[in-house]
Write a structure and sequence with these properties.
heterodimer, A: 305 residues, alpha/beta, Rossmann fold, Alpha-Beta Plaits, 2 domains, six-stranded mixed beta sheet, four-stranded antiparallel beta sheet, B: 527 residues, mainly alpha, 22 helices
Chain lengths: 305, 527
């Protein structure tokens, strides 16, 4: 698989703070790649380096086979960008801004632009200063999606959108994906990432802590089990991979590392199960474990070093 | 009182965030006034020399046009008020309108006031906080100036009146800006409208002072000068101004209650659904963003040029009537009075046009800070092409302003009875300042490219050029400081002969500065 984005050992310093600290990121051509991390983790900084707006202090960055700093202009012909914080010219209308950005890129698909305006229910005649946050976001989205760029860099593109518009956005990304185009999607909306992304990278404090497909990452997480048992839950706590045992009368609640699930289920069977509720590992859980402080205390099995 | 809750906290906030800005304005203006007094004292060591200067200025429309009515010129104090009065009043006017625009509509437009207003803060508290700060600033300018003038040995009564005039004029234009900030939702328009009224006040007092003085009563600057510092002081002309300021402030508070937060009284109209053909390249965008500002500066320069040209024939008749004096001045190397007058007029308008040139370059910085450069630079537009679009507006727009200044002065002079051959002569004399303006634009560019946090330094340099240009002689500045100003390096046509070398050098330095700025821009981080 060729890489649309290949970053390795990327360092970016702002004064004495290291915003990016040996970051690695690989996005294959044609994939929708989720880019997750807590606030201030370095997602926007990474995207700005990919756009050639910031200069890297170390490491290597390849974007569509080129150097984003040196070849910025040529590369920008092939990509479209939605900024995390959309700031528009207050006295230009939304329609004017969409046309302007499309023409600057040299790639404005007018029928598609009009179709997108309808789908996103955006009035293009309003001056930008009168748009709400969500509507400003729509202007940036329509401007980016109305292009045929082979790579979309989207920095939290749906912040401020309502659930209906979120659904429209997801449809649009699926269409982009069906055309074989590449998307880097920075997001906090986990349902969106689960619905759209083939692979995802989680970064924290400027370095990545996890990369893989959703399936792979789920293996690293725990399944939560709530069961009604006939006999007391003896010996359950001693089994490998069992965490957070809670007992209430005959009901037990545990979290189980995915790799030890079969042993635990066998033991539960021996204890006699009258009722069983089982939750698959969620991205939220994955997220919270990587974002939370526990990361520093206990090293993750799958953590890259 | 609930409308004013939180005012004290907000005043503290303003003092914290703008402490440097506030100090620079106050000390800058007060020092200028005091240094003028120091300069005048050493320029005229004897009463005889004062009398001589008074005779040369007394009925000289050229000098009166720039400085104000000839009153008390045979005293040191009168000379100081003549040199620093109108100039200081324009300075406090600018200080007031910039501070008010920034603290009220500026914060509202940026969305900062919304957060503040979500707290238990009264509807009028932010405006009142700005007003309290501004009043304190104007009072400080007044007190410091008066105290400094008294310390220089000038009469107390006149010093107090002059200081109070600054204070009152400042408050008046603060009130003007406050009303403008309620009407429009755009901070740039607040600066534009109140700046235009300040310019109009200056032009009205030129017309009045050259005539019988009646028109000056309609100008806040002219009216303040009617308080006659050091020339039989009278306080009462300052009272209607104070009253007018109070009315403007009251009006602004009333208007604030009938409008929505974030909007003005004039709502935005819907725009085009699609962009016109011009809005498809960086230059088209830059033109769209700057055309309003260019037109505003253009109107200002035109009106000033018309006023300067219109009164020039008065100067011709003054020359005819005062042959002896004019010959004496010619022997002193002053040259043709009319030509000197035109040279000074054009230099003032060139300095004004420089304001546009710097502002146009700094559009790059404000676009960058507001994160609007980012979406443009994320398209196949190189940093140089983006910067070149706004630089082109700055460099050619300022030349257009110079042409407008020269033409307006010449045509108005012709209409008023001067020779029509002056039109091409004055046009050429105006255009000579293009290299000096380009150099200043180049300085702004290199600041933007290399040290974007220090861009305000360019404004300080422009203010310095104004001081050198208008008060250089009075302040008795050393020659090497005067020569730092590119405007002093420009041959003062039509009073001097055209020499090409300095113009070529200025252009070359301008080119180097622009290039250095562009190189810096390409190397640094954006944002």
């Amino acid at each position: 698989m060729t890489s649309a984005i290949a970053i390795s050992g990327l360092v970016k310093k702002f004064g004495s703070t290291r915003a990016l600290d040996a970051l690695d990121l690989k996005v294959g051509t044609g994939e929708v790649h989720g880019f997750l991390g807590p606030n201030g983790a370095g997602k926007t900084t990474t995207i700005r380096i990919l756009l050639g707006l910031l200069r890297a202090d170390g490491g290597s960055v390849a974007l569509l086979g080129g150097d984003p700093w040196r070849d910025a202009v040529a590369l920008h012909r092939r990509l479209a960008y939605v900024p995390g914080e959309v700031s528009l010219w207050p006295n230009l209308s939304g329609g004017e801004i969409i046309d302007l950005l499309g023409r600057l890129r040299g790639d404005l698909d007018r029928p598609r632009r009009d179709e997108l305006l309808q789908r996103f229910e955006l009035d293009p005649t309003k001056k930008a200063r009168t748009y709400s946050k969500g509507n400003r976001q729509k202007v940036a989205l329509v401007a980016a999606l109305a292009s045929n760029a082979e790579l979309l860099l989207l920095d939290e593109p749906t912040s401020g959108l309502d659930p209906l518009m979120e659904a429209v956005f997801q449809d649009c990304i699926r269409e982009v994906k069906a055309q074989g185009r590449t998307v880097l999607l920075s997001s906090h909306i986990l349902a969106e990432v689960e619905a759209l992304c083939d692979r995802l990278s989680i970064i924290r404090l400027g370095r990545n802590v996890q990369t893989g497909t959703l399936q792979e990452l789920r293996h690293l997480t725990r399944t939560s089990i709530t069961a009604e048992l006939r006999s007391p839950p003896d010996g359950l706590e001693a089994l490998p991979g069992v965490h957070g045992l809670e007992v209430q009368d005959h009901q037990v609640h545990i979290s189980v590392d995915s790799e030890h699930l079969d042993v635990v289920v066998r033991r539960l069977g021996e204890l006699g199960v009258t009722s069983l509720v089982c939750h698959p590992p969620t991205l939220e859980e994955l997220f919270l474990r990587h974002y939370g402080q526990e990361l520093e205390k206990e090293p993750e099995p799958g953590r890259r070093t | 009182m609930k409308d004013l809750a939180g005012t004290a906290e907000l005043v503290r906030l303003v003092l914290r965030r703008d402490r440097v800005r506030i100090a620079v304005w106050i000390l800058g203006i007060a020092l200028l006034v005091i240094l003028t007094a120091v300069g005048v004292k050493s320029l005229f060591p004897t009463q005889k020399s004062i009398d001589l200067a008074a005779a040369a200025i007394q009925h000289n429309p050229g000098a009166i046009a720039f400085n104000g009515p000839a009153q008390g010129l045979d005293t040191l104090g009168g000379q100081v008020a003549f040199q620093a009065g109108a100039f200081g009043m324009v300075a406090v006017g600018l200080m007031s309108l910039f501070m008010i625009g920034r603290l009220t509509r500026g914060d509202e437009e940026a969305g900062r006031l919304e957060l503040v207003r979500s707290h238990p803060v009264g509807i009028h508290a932010p405006v009142l906080a700005a007003l309290i700060t501004l009043t304190a600033m104007n009072v400080a300018v007044g007190i410091l100036s008066s105290a400094g003038l008294v310390a220089e040995g000038l009469p107390i009564a006149g010093s107090l009146v002059l200081g109070a005039s600054f204070c009152v004029v400042g408050l008046f234009f603060g009130g003007v800006a406050l009303v403008a900030a309620q009407v429009t939702e755009n901070t740039r328009v607040v600066y534009g409208v109140s700046g235009a009224l300040l310019g109009l006040a200056y032009v009205l007092r030129i017309i009045g002072d050259i005539g019988d003085g009646t028109v000056s009563w309609f100008s806040p600057i002219g009216m303040a000068q009617k308080a006659r510092p050091y020339a039989g002081e009278r306080w009462w002309p300052l009272l209607p101004m104070l009253l007018a300021a109070a009315i403007l402030v009251t009006l602004a508070f009333q208007l604030a209650t009938i409008r929505d937060h974030g909007s003005g009284l004039i709502g935005p109209r819907p725009g085009r659904g699609t962009a016109s053909a011009n809005l498809g390249h960086p230059l088209g965008l830059a033109l769209r963003l700057q055309r309003g500002s260019l037109m505003g500066w253009g109107v200002g320069v035109l009106v000033t040029g018309i006023a300067y040209g219109w009164i020039a024939p008065t100067l011709d008749s003054f020359v005819k009537a005062n042959k002896a004096l004019v010959e004496m001045m010619a022997r002193a190397g002053v040259g043709s009075l009319t030509n000197t007058y035109f040279a000074t007029s054009l230099r003032v308008m060139a300095l004004v046009a420089t304001g546009f040139a710097i502002q146009a370059v700094f559009r790059l910085r404000s676009e960058e800070s507001a994160l609007r450069a980012e979406p443009v630079l994320a398209t196949p537009v190189s940093r140089w092409r983006w910067a070149a679009s706004h630089l082109a507006i700055s460099l050619t727009g300022s030349v257009a302003l110079l042409a407008a200044a020269g033409l307006a002065t010449g045509v108005s002079y012709g209409l008023a009875g001067g020779p029509w051959s002056s039109v091409p002569r004055l046009l050429g004399a105006a255009l000579v300042y293009a290299p000096a303006i380009w150099l200043m634009a180049g300085f702004a560019t290199i600041l933007f490219g290399v040290a974007p946090r220090l861009v305000d330094v360019a404004w300080a340099v422009l203010a310095g050029s104004f001081v050198i240009g208008l008060l250089g002689d009075v302040l008795r500045l050393p020659d090497w400081i005067v020569k730092l100003s590119p405007f002093e390096r420009t041959p003062a046509l039509p009073a001097a002969d055209l020499t090409v070398l300095p113009l070529a050098v200025l252009t070359l330095i301008a080119a180097v500065l622009v290039f250095g700025g562009l190189v810096g821009l390409r190397r640094r981080d954006i944002g």
